[in-house]
Amino acid sequence: MATVFEKIIAGEIPSVKLWEDSECIAILDISPVNKGHALVISKKCYPTFTDAPLETLSHMMAIARRIDAKQREVLGADGTNIMINNSPASGQEVPHLHIHVIPRYSGDGKTPVFSKEAYSGDEAKEYGEKLHL
Ligand code: AMP
Description:
One of its GO terms (molecular function) is catalytic activity. By secondary structure, the protein is of the alpha+beta class. The chain has three helices and five strands, in the order H-E-E-E-H-E-E-H. Strand 1 and strand 2 (24-28) form a beta hairpin.
């Protein structure tokens, strides 16, 4: 079944488009964290970040950076969250690669809150060894 983003790309569902090229589109998120919250969406449907080629990610990041600059310039954003939810366990709802670009304002209270853990003993060293590239 086609994702909502495939339907948007095909023009079957309306969207407010900020950018389009052969690799991706950028649109306004329908339920913004702050107004102007944008999504950079790959034209090809990669279900997750993990599935996408580096060239596509790199190109989409370049577009995200332009949106970040525009949000600062035009909306007066003090900062942005550039986010990719990667697989359902992380909160990804639409299985089609997209980057969130969320304009943020000092004191807007919208920061997502992660509960944090602590390493005990040699755990940090062990994780470091496991994850070392
Ligand atoms: P994620 O949880 O990372 O998969 O984010 C999916 C995002 O898509 C959510 O922030 C939704 O608000 C947004 N979204 C879902 N449907 C639409 C739509 N028709 N137009 C624009 N944004 C949408």
